[in-house]
Amino acid sequence: MKPYRSLSILAFAFSLALTGCSKKQVDTSQLEKAFQSVPPSKAAPNRSAQADPVKQMADQALTAIKANNYEAGAVALQALRSSPTLNPDQLTAVQNARTDSQKELVDGAVRGDAIAKKALETIGAMRRR
Fold first, then answer.
1. Domain boundaries, position 108
2. For the whole model, what pTM was predicted?
3. How far apart are CA 107 and CA 111, in angstroms?
4. Of 40, 55, 60, 110, which is most buried, counting CB atoms within 10 Å of its CB?
C-alpha cells in the first residue's frame, strides 16, 4: 500500500509541476486583501481582530510565505481552510495561496530539493488525516 501512496504523491507533484507557475514568489496580495480587515469571528464576537485566531492563522501563513517557507505557509493555510467562519473571498484566497505555495514546493522537489520533497510528504500526510 505504501508504494501506491508514494506513487500518488509523486504523480500529484509531477502534475503540479507540469502546470507549474512561472512566478518565482507566491503572490500574497489576494490573501492580504481578504484578511485585511477581518471582523471578529462568529465564535468569539467580543474579541478584537488582533486576537481572532483566524486572523492570526492568516498572518502566520502570510509571514511564512513571504519568507519563502512554503511548507509552513501551506500547513497554516490548510488549517485556515477548515475554518467555518471564512467568507467566500477568504476561502478563495486561501485556496489560491495554498495552491501557489504547493506549486513552489513541487518545483523545488522536481529540482531535487530534499526539503521540498519532505514538505510535500508532510502536506500529503495532513490530507489523509
1. 2-128
2. 0.69
3. 6
4. 55
